[in-house]
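As agreed, record passed on underneath.
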Amino acid sequence: MRKKSVANRANKRKPKATSATPQTADTPLPSAQPASTSKPLDTLKQNLSGKRKAVFQILDDVKKVKPEQWKDPNEVEQLAKNFANKLGLPVPEQRIKQFVNAYKDATKNGPTANVDELVKKYGHNVDDETVKEIKKFVPKTK
């Protein structure tokens, strides 16, 4: 009995069954969407999915923050960095600074900040749906 070479045996094997639509370099994965077409709120939700434990840790940390710590923008900046790290989300330093500046503006006149003005000044890529969600958490001015 003669042994067949490994190359001949490999050529005669049937190819394994794959998905109906083969993925190539030109065809993106079905779940991948260009960033420009997805809504920021949906992106945030997607980034937070699967991070339930981290979210509850952050909520617990927020409960432990003393009221005077919220008055110090440096403390708020550190909290924001810690929360981003716990969530495993890469947040550029420039974005953190932008958040802190918006936080300072939002809190300088008390709890009734004008969301539309803040978004105009700091939220260049904030869509209307996200603004609507933010407004739910800001007390109405009288």
Q: What stands out?
A: Residues 65 and 97 are 20 Å apart (CA to CA).
